[in-house]
Structure formats: C-alpha cells, structure tokens
Write a sequence for this structure.
C-alpha cells in the first residue's frame, strides 16, 4: 500500500462513518444556522448595512462550526479506543495526520459549501464567486492543518471541548484576519491583484503549518 | 552544587545592581523628551519588557525542540519557567504600552494606531493557553511532550500574527503617524542599558524558577516514596 493509499483509506473510513451516521454533518449544519440567526438579530438593531459585517459573520460561523467538527472528529476516535487501533495499523503516523487532516478538510468544506448559498440568501449578497471560493479554500486548509494537530492534543486533556478553541484561536488569528480582509475586499469589488499579498500570505501559512504539524504530530500521538 | 550557588548569587547581585542603575538612568540621566515629556520615560522599561517577553518565548521554542529530541525533563522545566517569566514581562509590556498610549493618543487601547499592542496581547493569550494546556493534562511526560509541541507551533505563528496585524492596520486610515524614533545619545545609552538589565533579570528569574521546578520534582518523588513505603 503506498503512502497515498494509506492516507486515502483513513479519509474513506471517516467519510463512510459520517455517511452512515450523519451525526457531525447535521449538528454542524444546525449549529451554523443558529449562529447566523443569532448574528442577524444581534446586528439588526444597530448595523445599517449588513453587507459590511457579512465577512466577519461568515468567518465566525466557519470557525465555530469547524471547531465543532474538529472536536467531534477525534472524540469519535476516542470511543471504543478506535485511536489505539488506528495507531496499531502498520503505517507511518504521518499518514494518520494527513488522513485525518484531509477528512477534516472535506467535512468543513462541505459545510461551507452548504452555508454559502444560505448566506447569500440571508445577507442578500452573491457569495458564490470563484475568487471567494479560492480564499475560503485556502483559509480552510490552514484551519484544518493546525486544527488537526491541536485537536489531537486537546482530545487528551481533561477539558477537551474547551481546550481546543483556547489553543486554536490565538494561532488562527492571522488566518482569520487575512480571510476576512480578502472576503471584504472581494465583496467591495476590489481587484484581486490588490489582495494578492493576502492570498500569498495564506498560502505561506498553509504550507508552513502543514509542515510543522506533520513534523510534530508524531510526538503528539506517541505513547 | 556549590558552583551553581555561586552563579545564582552572582546573577542576584548583578540584576539588583543593574536594575538600580537602570532606574537612575531612566529617571535622572536620560533627558526629558521634547514633545511627549516625562511620560516618554516609560519607553525604556516598556520596550525592554517586550524584548524579554519575545526572548523568553523563543527560549521556550528552543527548549521544546531540545526536549522532543532528547527527552531530558530539565528542558521541559526550562520551557515552562521561561513561559512563566515571559508572561510576566509581556503583561508588563502590555500595561506600560497601554499607559503610554493613553498619554500619547488619549486612548488606552489604540487597536488601529498601534498594531504592536495587539501583537503583544496575542502573545500573552498564546502562552496563557500554553499554561492552561499544562494544567489540564495528567502525567508529567505527556504534559511535557504536548507543551513542547504547542510551544513550537505557537512561536511559529508569531511572525504570521505580526505581519497580518500590520497589514490589517495599513489598510485603515492612520490617524497618528508614528514619529521616527531619533534617540539622543543619552537616551540610546539608557535604552541599551535597560535592555541589558532586563535580560540579566530574565536569566536570574529563569534560573530560580527552573531550580524551584527541580525541587518540586524532587519533593514529589520523595512524597511518592514515602507513601509507597507506608503502603508496603
């Protein structure tokens, strides 16, 4: 079995498990909708132009829903000691990292794909733009790269669900700032060339954190 | 044992002396700044604390890598001690920065004008998360391993945070242009001496804190032996 096949086997396992239970997907979906509704009401009273806060609301929703997914993804593995079984599999631990990371990326992207049309309707904005999709994808890679590593740490602590956001959010700040900036820029009609430095920044973040997470994941899951 | 005592004694005296000299330089020797007045004197300790904060977290990164490579628990103690000292100094930098901002811009928290303030606050949050993480893990070995990994990831994120916060600010109207700091020679000398004094203080505190950690370890080991002795 090649490295890629091993990675894909783990991704496939997660996808099949999710397709059978639909636990994560339904909870993320309902949660995201609730976040939008709550934001809508909390801004309704004061904000004149809802389009101005749309990038922020969009990303807060994605980050919250994504954190929920990351927590769930490894908490599931803890039940029945599935994680130990996974580590017993004859393969490199980094294959597990990339497998879980890709799985997370797929689930979070799927939720984002579902949320975008809903967002477009609720905020009366066209969010289905190629440049915006690219931005969201780049941001989600960074999110999944760091998130997978940190969720593997958080799942071993006593306060799992609380620990993950505490660890994740300060590291994720650069991603949140840049994607919100680019999203706002695209919605304002700023030419993509003027936002290119942000996109390059996102790509650099994605690559560096994929490498760092890949290198340190071994230490997180050993023992 | 006696050699390490001597290093500590030396550092104790050296930091006490250098901080006193630094106080003299800051309050008496350095000239009063023309536009900002006396409040500018906060600059010397403010920048020095920020520097020690950065440096301390860098030491945590290095100690984390050393721990993961060799598994020597002393490195973990150094990493933890450095975070604790670093947080103290970073908090000092945030507080003095906020006071300075109030005097200069009439705002305690100038998000837009001073990206560095946001950056340093993020540093504080990152390493508070580091301490929280340690508090929530059982088992010394696992604690050290996870903390080392988080110390590495956290420090790698710092340049990204710095750049994004700077760019984020640049796209907004800048109300107050920061004047280029043209330090008078006496000011520069004071500033450099403060940096040195704070760095010495950092190493003194790091040494004491690491030693305390080691003693804690020993005490825990003795306690365990005592308990198992009673049980058996």
């Amino acid at each position: 079995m090649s490295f890629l096949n091993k990675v894909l086997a783990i991704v496939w396992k997660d996808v099949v498990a999710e397709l059978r239970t639909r636990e994560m997907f339904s909870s993320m979906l309902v949660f995201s909708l609730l976040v939008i509704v709550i934001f809508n009401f909390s801004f309704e009273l004061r904000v004149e132009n809802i389009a101005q806060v749309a990038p922020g609301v969009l990303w807060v929703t994605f980050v919250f829903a994504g954190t929920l997914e990351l927590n769930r993804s490894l908490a599931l593995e803890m039940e029945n000691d599935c994680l130990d079984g996974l580590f017993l599999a004859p393969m490199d631990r980094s294959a597990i990292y990339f497998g879980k990371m890709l799985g997370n990326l797929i689930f979070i992207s799927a939720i984002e794909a579902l949320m975008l049309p809903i967002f477009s309707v609720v905020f009366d904005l066209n969010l289905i733009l190629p440049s915006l999709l690219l931005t969201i994808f780049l941001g989600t890679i960074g999110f999944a790269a760091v998130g997978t590593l940190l969720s593997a740490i958080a799942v071993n602590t006593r306060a799992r669900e609380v620990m993950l956001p505490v660890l994740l959010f300060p590291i994720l700040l650069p991603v949140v700032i840049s994607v919100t900036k680019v999203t706002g820029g695209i919605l304002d009609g700023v030419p993509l060339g003027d936002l290119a430095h942000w996109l390059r920044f996102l790509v650099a973040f994605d690559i560096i954190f994929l490498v760092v997470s890949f290198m340190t994941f071994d230490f997180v899951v050993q023992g | 044992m006696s050699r390490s005592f001597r290093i500590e004694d030396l550092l104790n005296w050296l930091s006490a002396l250098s901080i006193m000299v630094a106080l003299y330089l800051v309050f008496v020797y350095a000239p009063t700044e023309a536009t900002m007045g006396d409040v500018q004197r906060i600059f010397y300790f403010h920048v020095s604390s920020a520097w020690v904060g950065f440096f301390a977290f860098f030491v945590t990164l290095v100690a984390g890598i050393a721990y993961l490579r060799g598994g020597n628990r002393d490195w973990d103690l150094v990493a933890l001690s450095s975070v604790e000292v670093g947080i103290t100094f970073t908090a000092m930098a945030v507080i003095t920065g906020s006071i300075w901002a109030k005097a200069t811009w009439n705002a305690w928290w100038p998000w837009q004008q001073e990206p560095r303030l946001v950056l340093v606050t993020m540093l504080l949050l990152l390493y508070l998360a580091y301490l929280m993480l340690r508090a929530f893990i059982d088992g010394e070995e696992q604690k050290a391993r996870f903390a080392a990994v988080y110390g590495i990831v956290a420090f790698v994120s710092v340049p990204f945070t710095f750049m994004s916060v700077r760019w984020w600010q640049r796209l907004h109207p800048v109300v107050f242009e920061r004047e280029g700091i043209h330090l008078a020679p006496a000011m520069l000398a004071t500033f450099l001496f403060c940096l040195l004094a704070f760095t010495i203080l950092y190493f003194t505190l790091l040494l004491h804190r690491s030693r305390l950690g080691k003693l804690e370890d020993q005490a825990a080991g003795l306690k365990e032996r005592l308990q198992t002795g009673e049980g058996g």
